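Lab notebook page, bench 4
Experiment: in silico fold of construct C2
Operator: M.H.
Input chain length: 215 residues
Purpose: comparison with the prior construct
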Amino acid sequence: MLSVIHPHTELIETMRLHRTGLVPLLALHLKRLEYSARTLGYPYQQNSILQALQPYFLRRYTQPQRLRLTLGRTGKITVQCQPLAETAQPVRLALSPLNPVAPAILLQHKTTQRQHWAQGERWLQQHPSFFDVIYFDQNQQITEGGRSNIYILKNNRWVTPSLKQPLLAGVQRQYLLDQGWVSEEDITKKDLLHAPRIRISNALRGWLDARLDHF
């Protein structure tokens, strides 16, 4: 199965860096990165990663930053930092008519090998007022968005699809589960279409109110 990972594929962690130089979910980012590295056969040296990030932690910023770290097959680490605009809520979502076609291992790890999201990304570029495209599988079970995990209010509880399905274990998602604010449960397409409230999350933007505007 690892043969589907291209030699030049990099692992990615995209983090929200506060103006004070703090990444609140750093421990969860490192834990996920280490898991992906071990699973996919990448070298993981946490001290080297923290050393590459440290200069950005020591600065102060006028607005939050998007801090993007990549880890290559040889252990090469790159870091990019740029300003992050706030996100107006509720964000707009579209329901994809197609499932992403990809081996499960590509859906379960955050990498630069993202061709399975390409069609959705093209649609979003053509419809810039939308935040994400949400996908469902052959059994009409909602999985995730190309940029975020999804949640609905069901029986007065916030629920999100479980990792029994091949989807990305988002860092913000894990934080919400750890806090007991959400739980895992199957979500059908029908559930989503009739949900009284919808939210999405990613580590960069947080946990955001959303609405389904295209389905």
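Observations: The radius of gyration is 17 Å. Helices lie at 26-40, 46-57, 104-108, 118-126, 171-179, 189-193.
Next step: discuss at group meeting.
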